[in-house]
């Protein structure tokens, strides 16, 4: 914008985002946010109505390239790249309130170490898991235990070969059975459900130095 002395000034967004008018103009209910991958192309969509500009940075084979994204209805920025991007990492570079900020994809499904970048994944390569049917007659019959994947098996001397890993979480062997540790411990509790919190990213742990 230009103020009364004909000098440019940054127009900052603040309380306007909490108004009903803002919701009317920018609410987006589509299901295509994030990336939509095929071998022929990948479509990217980011809902960022307060951004003045958005760029997409793709890294392949340690080479980064930046692409301008186009603003469309409801403040959704879009970009399509006509190539096979399976396994490539990416960031959004967003200009908000006069400053450029880097961020990973809030709608992403994968990231690299310490979530520095989002990663494009061919969803067809992800194994499908069938839902488990329980014999509970009422939700009130549920007995829920909460744990995290990492901390559940990080203690030394409990017989886990893969401490802090997904594989270690369900690992069972003679030592874990005798000591009632790991998955054998879960089975001994008489619970019906396990709530995993967190499953992947752990904000206080450096994934390059998990100890």
Task: Give your account of this protein's structure.
With 211 residues, this protein is α+β, with helices and mostly antiparallel strands. Helices cover 11% and strands 26% of the residues. The protein contains four helices and eleven strands; from the N terminus they run H-E-E-E-E-E-E-E-E-E-E-H-H-H-E. The strands form three sheets. Strands 3, 4, 7, 8 and 9 form a five-stranded antiparallel sheet that branches. Strand 7 and strand 8 form a beta hairpin. It is elongated. It starts with 19 loop residues before the first helix and ends in a 15-residue tail after the last strand.
- Amount of helix: 10-25%
Instruction: Give the termini distance in whole angstroms.
Output: 51 Å
Radius of gyration: 23 Å
Low-confidence stretches: none
Shape: elongated
Order of helices and strands: HEEEEEEEEEEHHHE
SS-based class: alpha+beta
What is the makeup of the main sheet?
A: 5 strands, antiparallel
The tally of strands reads: 11
Strand content: 25-35%
Count up the helices.
4
- Overall mean pLDDT stands at 91
């Amino acid at each position: 914008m230009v103020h009364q002395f004909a000098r440019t000034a940054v127009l900052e967004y603040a309380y306007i985002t909490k108004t009903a008018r803002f919701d009317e103009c920018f609410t987006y209910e589509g299901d295509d946010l994030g990336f939509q991958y095929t071998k022929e192309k990948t479509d990217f969509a980011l809902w960022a109505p307060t951004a003045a500009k958005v760029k997409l940075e793709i890294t392949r084979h340690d080479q980064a390239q930046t692409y301008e994204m186009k603003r469309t209805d409801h403040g959704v920025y879009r970009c399509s790249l006509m190539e096979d991007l399976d396994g490539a990492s990416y960031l959004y570079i967003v200009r908000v309130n006069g400053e450029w900020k880097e961020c990973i994809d809030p709608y992403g499904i994968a990231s690299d170490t310490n979530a520095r970048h989002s990663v494009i994944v061919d969803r067809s390569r992800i194994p499908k898991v069938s839902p488990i049917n329980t014999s509970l007659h009422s939700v009130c019959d549920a007995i829920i235990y909460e744990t995290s994947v990492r901390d559940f098996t990080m203690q030394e001397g409990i017989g886990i070969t893969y401490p802090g890993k997904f594989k270690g979480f369900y690992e069972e062997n003679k030592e874990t059975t005798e000591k009632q540790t790991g998955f054998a411990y879960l089975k001994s509790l008489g619970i019906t459900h396990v709530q995993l919190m967190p499953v992947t990213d752990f904000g206080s742990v450096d994934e390059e130095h998990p100890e």
